[in-house]
Amino acid sequence: MDTRERIQELADRVVALRDAYYQGSPLVADAEYDAVEDELRALIAAHPELAPDPNPLDQVGAPSVLHAPIRHSRPMLSLEKATKPEQVAAFFDRFPGQPVVVMPKLDGLSLALVYEQGRLVRAITRGDGTTGDDVTVLVRALTDGIPDRVGATGRVEVRGEAVMLRSTFTAYNVAHPDKPLINPRGAAAGTLRAKDPATVAERRLVFFAFDLDTEIAAETAADLADALRSLGFTAAEMRHCADPDAALAAITEIEQRRNDLDYDLDGAVLRLSDRDAYAAAGTRSSSPRGALAYKFAAEEKTTVLADVVWDVGKTGKIAPVAHLEPVFVGGTTVTRATLANQEVIRARGIRIGDTVLVRRAGDVIPFVAGVLDESKRTGAEREIVPPSACPSCGQPLTEQGNSRELFCTNVSCPAQTVRRLIHWASRAAADIEAVGPVWIERLAEAGILENPSDIYTLTKERLLEFDRIGEVSATRMVESIDAARGVGLRRALIGLAIPMASEGTATRLCRAGFGSLEEVADAGEERLVAVEDIGPKVAASLIEHLTRLRPEMERLRARGVSLDVREEDLPPVVAADAPLAGKTVVVTGSINDPRSGEKIPRPTFQRLCEKAGATTASSVSASTDLLITGADVGASKLTKAEKHGVEVVDQSVIWQQLIAAGLA
Ligand SMILES: NC(=O)c1ccc[n+]([C@@H]2O[C@H](COP(=O)([O-])OP(=O)(O)OC[C@H]3O[C@@H](n4cnc5c(N)ncnc54)[C@H](O)[C@@H]3O)[C@@H](O)[C@H]2O)c1
């Protein structure tokens, strides 16, 4: 094929892929689409005389389709893309002496919000960059972080990105396994295409502002962030960078924090910080010259679903695991992914042999989001058939719940036994550091381990009977088992993997005054359901399984394992003058110890707040006293805090108090 033909083929493909994408049913992952665009761009750059007319690369988005089209006051453009440090240096070289701001590139959909005399009059999507859809009604009903009124007169236009939080996306898919959303960005766009806000009420969005058009606009982008905040918006975080090294450091930092955020980022945006210089730089056909998007590794890719294997979990749940042709996604090579349950497989229409979209974003385990392009099927694809018997022990399975999850109820099923033992030894439970999954499997296969209590009978001599183990390792394992006898009530409850009883259940039982595992087993339904968040189903499961586990409790006790409540299981003792005494607090954003700059896991910081007398909660409500904010805070909690009149304090204030009280 000659170059002219190849260019035409690529241009046609770009148009076809865009059409499908902007109608809400993409045919390929973004990374694949970007590769087509990149090849086309490179060919046109090398042969400008062969550029197609019209050139799809000069166009932005797609024409508005659904609602009333509205003309933008100035075009809403795309951004020039970069993936290499040299391109960042070249951007600085184009504008000598001009400082640049670096900000996260949020992966949602852009909106223009028009305020007149302080009131929101219109919210408009990007559309084809010249005209967009009027989505004012939907935005008012469904988007957090967009004030109805701002303290400014005249005409004010704010631009930014509306995103669906990962937590909203996950919660929606858990609640609707029959019609799961593929990814947060597509879901956000779909939300703003709804005919009636009431039908998409669970699909809330959050708005982050990054641009402002008004006479009161600030001189520089740093002031721009302040100006946006003073109008009541959550502004994208903006850092000033004087040279390429500083910009690259800021980009790296944003990429490192990407996994800790509750929303998707697909890159970082560099932009001239001086407003006049930015305006003077002008625009190309589809992008401003004064900005650049540095793209991160894709969190979604397509690959072939090679097989589905049904895995038996510690509670007997039989879960489908996707075996994939290796694919580099979310920063690692993925060969396995979750498929949730048979209802999700049915709803997503997935078959073995299909080209599927795999998503790995944040701390979420990779999962198969769905099939994008069914027309790629060859006919050789096979249906995914759930097993009728347990793949490990062969016993018939039972179906539970609306998602028709499959369970093996045979408590002596070999696969379940191994999983339960591995779970017992894990850090969240008995924490037997030197006895890992591989050894547990070997020992269970040899018939030496069946119950957790058997672990505590292992001797060095016994271990040395196995191949590939030396004196040193055997000693280390036995010492590690010995050192881990102080399990206590909370971790024992977690370790026994009682169906429906979560870590939270274990914590609440300890805090409700239960002194030992036997006391929980004897409590009876009435006393159990009196504990916060424990309902009749969880109580029934606790009673059934702890009754069955009586002999095991006796064996654990006989082998010196503590099953009584321990100090670590209870809330810390707090002095009456502790800085946060009696306060209910919610912690949001990413937390850093100001002394070392080190990132602190949120639960660790919450524990520090508890030591200082606070009760911690996960969501903001009228009973919240303080919202403690770290870096990169989402707008939804802030909006709720405002609604309930909750005081918002920066983490630095709390750190000072904790340090002054000798608690941190
Ligand atoms: N899968 C497919 O078939 C397919 C087809 C077409 C397009 N796409 C995807 O759609 C996207 C194409 O969109 P695009 O070329 O307009 O670029 P883009 O969406 O990647 O970048 C431009 C957008 O970035 C957003 N943005 C986020 N944070 C920003 C910030 N801080 N400052 C300025 N802007 C910010 C703005 O909304 C702006 O419109 C690409 O990611 C592409 O992969 C996919």
UniProtKB/TrEMBL annotation:
As cofactor, the record names:
Mg(2+); Mn(2+)
Report the PROSITE patterns cross-referenced here.
BRCT, DNA_LIGASE_N1
Which of UniProt's keywords are assigned here? DNA damage, DNA repair, DNA replication, Ligase, Magnesium, Manganese, Metal-binding, NAD, Zinc
- Gene Ontology biological-process entries: DNA repair; DNA replication
Q: Which reaction does it catalyse?
A: NAD(+) + (deoxyribonucleotide)n-3'-hydroxyl + 5'-phospho-(deoxyribonucleotide)m = (deoxyribonucleotide)n+m + AMP + beta-nicotinamide D-nucleotide
- BRCT domain boundaries: 575-664
Where Zn(2+) binds, per the record, is at C390, C393, C413
* EC annotation from Swiss-Prot or TrEMBL: 6.5.1.2
List the active-site residues. K105 (n6-amp-lysine intermediate)
Q: What class of enzyme is it?
A: ligase
Cite the binding residues for NAD(+): D30, A31, E32, Y33, D34, S78, L79, R126, E161, K295
Listed GO molecular functions?
A: DNA binding; DNA ligase (NAD+) activity; metal ion binding
Q: What does this protein do?
A: DNA ligase that catalyzes the formation of phosphodiester linkages between 5'-phosphoryl and 3'-hydroxyl groups in double-stranded DNA using NAD as a coenzyme and as the energy source for the reaction. It is essential for DNA replication and repair of damaged DNA.
Spell out the family assignment given in the record's similarity comment: Belongs to the NAD-dependent DNA ligase family. LigA subfamily.
Question: What NCBIfam families does its record include?
Answer: dnlj, PRK07956.1
HAMAP family this protein is in?
DNA_ligase_A
Q: Return the protein name.
A: DNA ligase
Phylogenetic classification of the source organism: Bacteria, Bacillati, Actinomycetota, Actinomycetes, Pseudonocardiales
Gene that this sequence comes from: ligA
